[in-house]
Amino acid sequence: MFKKIMKGGHRKPSKSDSAENYAFGPPGSHKPGSVVVNHASRPVLKAPEQNCSPSAPIAPPPLSTAAVEPLPLLRDVPVSERQSLFLRKLQICSYQLDFTNMLKTVREKEVKRRTLLELVDFFQSGSGKITEVCQEEMIKMVAINIFRCLPPASHENTGPEVTDPEEEETHLDPSWPHLQLVYELLLRYVVSSDTDTKVAKRYIDHSFVLKLIDLFDSEDPREREYLKTILHRIYGKFMVHRPFIRKAINNIFYRFIYETERYNGIGELLEILGSIINGFALPMKEEHKLFLARALIPLHKPKPVATYHHQLSYCVTQFVEKDYKLADTVIRGLLKYWPVTNCQKEVLFLGELEEVLEATQSAEFQRCMVPLFRQIARCLNSPHFQVSERALFFWNNEHIVGLIAQNRHVVLPLIFEALEKNILGHWNQAVHGLTVNVRKMFVEVDAELFEECRRQYEEKTAGAREVEDQREMTWKRLADVAGEREEGIWLQSN
Fold first, then answer.
1. Which pTM value belongs to this model?
2. What is the mean pLDDT of residues 92-102?
């Protein structure tokens, strides 16, 4: 997560934002990672003002070989000529080239690559102060290069067959050597101290931001990493965009949860939100609480939750740490979406639940402890040893043990039967040993309560055996009657 703090914008904060502080981190490393690829036929968000489809590519200027010629370096020309030369270099970088055939337009690709490198170095050197006209043209050049139709994802080429996102083959964008430089140039422009927010927001507007967010569905993790860093910096520097960015991300989550369950950048968007949530001021706005209840908690429902659960768990835990009164809402939400047949997902939920309980106070714990420990009791008896073991690890956490000890008269009767069943018959020895330790802990805390629970359990077990014996006797009598009747019919027939 982002650790450092970056002050955003030069204007006075608006009333809606004045109560919030946001933590912003450094640009981050942009190392090539393993990858994946996406598409153009997805539904898109609409910006409130003049906005074309976020995925729609911007028409590039017609390619002329004569136009893509090397130009002198910026540092080699007089200062008075640098702005015009800068514009000519932007024009070269605006030509889109075909990267599906690496042997095609090789010279033009190399000229464009070197020009982009020079522009990045120009901003990185600290001499990145450019006129407003140059800023406008540079953002246009960036838009021409990065706003494009994403290629179809692998699962969209296979018809109705459903595949696991974690098992899908990763794809690299062949144009990445140029795209990376364009993203780096945009990042340097956004973070530069010479960039005037009042001027830049005319070009980095809602339409631009919305198209940028739509690119998070790219299957290339290198591109998503750059997008994450750039959007995070925009959020920090352009305070006017903050509510819009939060709403746009919210809408992506809704579409992912309730419609597609397919989106590559959920984890990266959650990383940005984790930093934003960390900076929320108290008392927390109702808008943020609704976001937790309507978007973050339902994000536990989709099947690919394992691909982004770490980031999701961090965001949810941040809410509880900010406002401990939200613990009851979060715990009940987790119980609502608790997996029934997916044991690996259940292990993830138990880990997140422990983190939430660590930030939970006694009053909130008491509100949800009955449904909570009914679920934990089911986990204790899970035949999957990792689920049972993970649930027993709760008793290694001092804070949770303290909450259980304070409310042992409610908790122990709920889980006593599960503990006894594990001791009597769980197949895994590690689970058996951990259960014995938990049982011993309850005996040491309140032996009288433990004996009362054992007495009730033995009475319940005896009653269940008696009912079972009566059922067997009833079936035996019915079988005898049926046998006698069948014998009588046979005798009559003979």
1. 0.80
2. 85
